[in-house]
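Tokens as discussed.
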């Protein structure tokens, strides 16, 4: 009889997976999140929390969350608390950076994840500097053209 119980336990573990593999998968997800944080840290010089963005723009935090949901503003989870944060470059003169919502929509249409979009915006291109700097310098037409070309 004990052999039957052992066989059942082994079959159950094989069909559902062990709890150790579930724990390792969660750990792997944490490692991937930490790697994304490290990449973002090296690319983005300054960050703002959503309440800081709300204060800078003069809108309630709920409106900022809606802008993120509508892909008009890019926010990524960072730090130990995994709080949503926005690169400080995305807020200029009390407004969302001119041209950013359109570029974010084009990148989304090209199937870029938030992390990929952030990496693209802060990585040097053939432009003089990264695309986000071109947007800050009011040279958004070229950035939009390049983002649109990524979809093809």
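Sequence:
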């Amino acid at each position: 009889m004990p052999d039957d119980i052992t066989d059942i336990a082994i079959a159950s573990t094989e069909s559902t997976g062990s709890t150790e593999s579930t724990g390792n998968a969660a750990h792997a997800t944490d490692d991937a999140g930490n790697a994304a944080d490290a990449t973002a840290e090296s690319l983005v010089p300054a960050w703002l929390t959503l309440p800081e963005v709300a204060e800078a723009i003069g809108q309630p935090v709920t409106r900022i969350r809606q802008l993120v949901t509508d892909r008009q503003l890019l926010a990524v989870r960072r730090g130990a608390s995994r709080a949503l944060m926005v690169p400080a470059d995305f807020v200029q003169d009390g407004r969302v950076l001119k041209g950013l919502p359109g570029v974010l929509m084009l990148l989304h249409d090209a199937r870029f994840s938030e992390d990929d979009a952030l990496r693209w915006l802060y990585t040097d291109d053939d432009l003089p500097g990264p695309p986000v700097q071109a947007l800050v310098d009011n040279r958004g037409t070229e950035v939009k053209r390049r983002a649109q070309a990524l979809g093809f």
